[in-house]
Each structure stands twice: as C-alpha cells, then as structure tokens.
Amino acid sequence: MTLLLGTVPALAAILCLLLRRGPVVAAAMGLAAAVVLTAAGPFDLEVQPAGAIAYGGLVLEVLTILLFGMILARLLQDAGAMDRIGAVIEQAAPSRVAGTALVVFGVVPFAEAVTGFGIGVTVGVPILLSLGHPAARAALLGLLGLVAVPWGALGPGTAVAASLAGLELDALGVATGVVNIVPTLVAAVAVLWLCRSERDPVGGAVVLGSAVLLWAAILSANILFGTPPAGIVGALVVIMVLLAVFRLRGRRITGDAVLARSLVPYSVLTVGLLAARGLVRGGEHPLAQVLASPSTWLAIACLMVPLALPRTTDRHTVRAATRAWVPVGLSTAGFMLMGWLMSVNGMSQVIGAGVAFAGTAPGPFLSALGAVLTGSNTGANAMFASTVLALAETAEANPLVAVALANAAGSFAALAAPPRVAMAVGLAAASPPSRSSSPHFGNEHAPSGNERAESGQQGADPGQQRAESGQQRAESGQQGAESGIPDLQAMTARTLVSALGIVAISTALMAALGPAGLLDPAVGLLTD
Length: 528
Hints:
Blueprint: H1 2-18, H2 23-40, H3 49-79, H4 81-92, H5 96-115, H6 119-130, H7 135-144, H8 156-165, H9 169-179, H10 181-194, H11 201-225, H12 230-248, H13 257-280, H14 286-291, H15 294-308, H16 315-344, H17 347-354, H18 362-374, H19 377-395, H20 399-413, H21 418-430, H22 449-457, H23 470-482, H24 486-516, H25 520-527
Helix pairs in contact: 1-2, 1-17, 2-16, 3-8, 3-15, 3-16, 4-5, 4-6, 4-13, 4-22, 5-6, 5-7, 5-11, 5-12, 6-7, 6-21, 7-21, 7-24, 8-19, 8-20, 9-11, 9-20, 9-25, 10-11, 10-24, 11-12, 13-15, 16-19, 17-19, 18-19, 18-20, 18-24, 19-20, 20-24, 21-23, 21-24, 23-24
C-alpha cells in the first residue's frame, strides 16, 4: 500500500500530461498530491533547513536561467543573428552530408547549449532545408541535433538531478559526458541512415567524426571548465574544426561586420562564463556564486544584443519572451518542488525499493518517459532523479553512473516529446521553398553568404529575414497541423514514430549498460 501511495504524485502528473492538460496543471497536481500525502499519509517529512534553503536557491537559479535564455533566444531571432550565421555555414558546406554533420553536431548543439527549449531545432531546420533535405528529413535531422541536452541552457536539468541525488554538479556532468557516447553514436547512425541515398562515404566519415568529436569535446570541457559551459565549448570546437576542414577542401568562408556583431552576444556569454568560473572556482561567497552563475551571464548577453545589433530590439520582444516563460517557469518550479518533496519524505526510496528486483535498469526508462511527457530533462530529473538514486542504493550500484545514465537517457528522449516533434515538422513544412534547393556544393562561383544575406535583407528589417523567424514559422506550421492538413498530420505522425524508435534504442542500450557495469571504470577514473 505504501508503494502505491508513493507513486501517486508521479502518476497524477503523468495522467494529466496524457490527458493533455498541460505541464502547468500536471506539475500542480503532482505537487498537490505530494503535499497531501505528506500531511495525511504514511510518509515522514525530514527536512534540513540548510538543504531546503540551498534547493530554493537552485529553483530560483533555474528559473532565471530559463527566463534569460528565452529572452536571449527571442532577441537573437528578431535580430537575425542566427540567420546570418546560418548563411555562412550553408555556404561553407562542401557536400550535403558534410553540411548536415555541421548542423546536427555543431550548430544545433551550440544553439541549444546557449538557450535551451528546443531553440536549436528552430535554428537548424531552416539550414537543413537550404542544404536540400526534404521537409520530413530536415525535421528529424534537426531533432537529432538535441544530443547535448544535458548541457542545454547551461545545464539546469543536470543541476536538478545533482541536487536531488546529492551529487556534485561537475562530477555528474563528467559522468553524463562519459555515458552520452551512447545517444551521440545512435544519433550519428540515424543521420547516416537518413542520408544513405546521398552515397557519400566521405560525408559519412565526417558525420561519424563530428559525433565523436562533439562527445569528446563536451567531456573534455566538462572536466576543464565545469558543467554549465561544457555544451557551448564542445559545440564550438566541432564548428571550428569542421569549418577549418571545409576551408582546407577549398570552400570559401566569408565574414563581414554583420557576422561579427551577430557573434558578440555568444562570445560575451561564453568568455564571460568561462572566465568567471575560473576566477571563483571553489569560492563559497554569495557574490562569487552570483558572478559564476549562468543566469548572470545570460542576462549580460541579453544586454549585449541591442548594443551589438542596433535597431533590432524593442520592449515587445522582451515582453513576449517573458509571457512565454511564465508557463515554462511555473511547470518547472512545480516539478522541481514535487521532486524535492518526494525525496525528503521517503516516497522516492519506497518506489526504488519496490522495483529493486530490476536493478538500475528502470532508471533510464523512467527518465525517458518523463522527458517525452514533459518535453524537458529538467522535468524528468525533477520527477525521477531521487527514485533513480534509490534504485542504485538498493541494488548496491554506483549512484553516480546510475543517475548519469538516467540523465543522458531523459535528455536525449526530450527530442521525441510530441510538442517538440510538432514544432520541428511545422517549421519544416511552413518554411518557404528553399532558395538552395540545388545547393552549390563544390562550386566556388556560388553566391557568397554575404550576397545571400544582402539579398534577403532587401526591403526587410533584419528581424523579418527568412519569414520573420524560425519560431514564427514553427507556430504557423503547428496552426496548420491543428487545422487538419492531412499531409502535415501524417508527416508529424511518421516523424514522431521515428523519433520514439530512435529514443527507444538509445534508452535500451543505456539500461543494459548500467547493470553490466561497463562504464563504471571510466566514470571512476575521470571523477576521482
């Protein structure tokens, strides 16, 4: 009976999500159930005041990261910054498959690491379309770029898992970096399968090399600089290495003042965060913590957008981003509080003991389920991280490896969340016919990125390039899906089935690796 009662908060949240009541209602119902059962049920609340205050600080930091991340994404979209960067990347690609590798394992992870919320997909899909991919393939390829979600938006989801499991953030980041080789290679194989008709062995080698490079670069950055900036640094390494390789193969990579200004907010965020964390590493003073906080540098990056890209920002953009943040913030806070309450009142331990017969194998599946339903690794970790810890303790397994596997599995599974799939397909279907349906691969006389950007800017403000912005195209595509366009509905269904299949393969592999203990030595070596 206690086991059944312990599952009620999670089941209440899952039921609301299945009934399409939305994440805010689901989080509220789950939290309410946890509160009621704590007050009237067989669970004892054991709270350490210092721990409660620390977790409250984490909730506040996560919410501010989400807020400034969403504002930065809107500002950069309206400023046309990623459109300009995308034009250069499109021009640099020597082949469709090589360009796809750059987008999937460089551009999308970078945009996701900076802002989160699937923004990387809205950046990557238009570039994939311009490389000549059909809409359905471009949507799925863009989703596959979400291989670095544990470090997305500077890693709040991983921070939540670390806090609820009582683990050190950077240690969990390194362990997640080790195990993330599984979803990264699964994504690479999926990219090769989707691009098999291209018959491009060199491009295929670039895909595999890019995937391994991204994995190694993020893991190395996590060891050297800590978890929050690791995704940004790792993705930047992939982008710079591939652009250098393309340049050696004779591709023309051009830049101008607009491109330089577009890179300023990203540069300030990356350099500032790395420098701050290096200066105050290990510092416990509150001011040091604020200086090294990802939310601080996201806010500074937001301030840099109107300075670097003038006449492209107004108050309406910030207001729109803030309005969009409200439901995200409410649901995130609700799930985080529910997960914390379940961990301190013993519910998670009861659930872990109840399924202990399966060892740690259920962990990745629970986290993946939570991510598909909530669309967020933060929500998934808030719901199940403490349960995964209980599974590891009951099975006498390495808790760091168990939580890392669940974190990686849930993060990758977020790509198969139905709203995210609908966004990607809607974006691909609603985009205008690509001006590069016959890309100039290997043609040195193709128009430069500057020329394309200038032609796209004629008669339009920078914030109106490429049909205003990726997010607006995605919203219009989703409206089309809701209006009952058969082809769009069928495309969404096929893409969702494919995404779920890819996620299932990755999750099953990680669930098998945990009990086998194959990753324990590597994790132990890098985190000791």
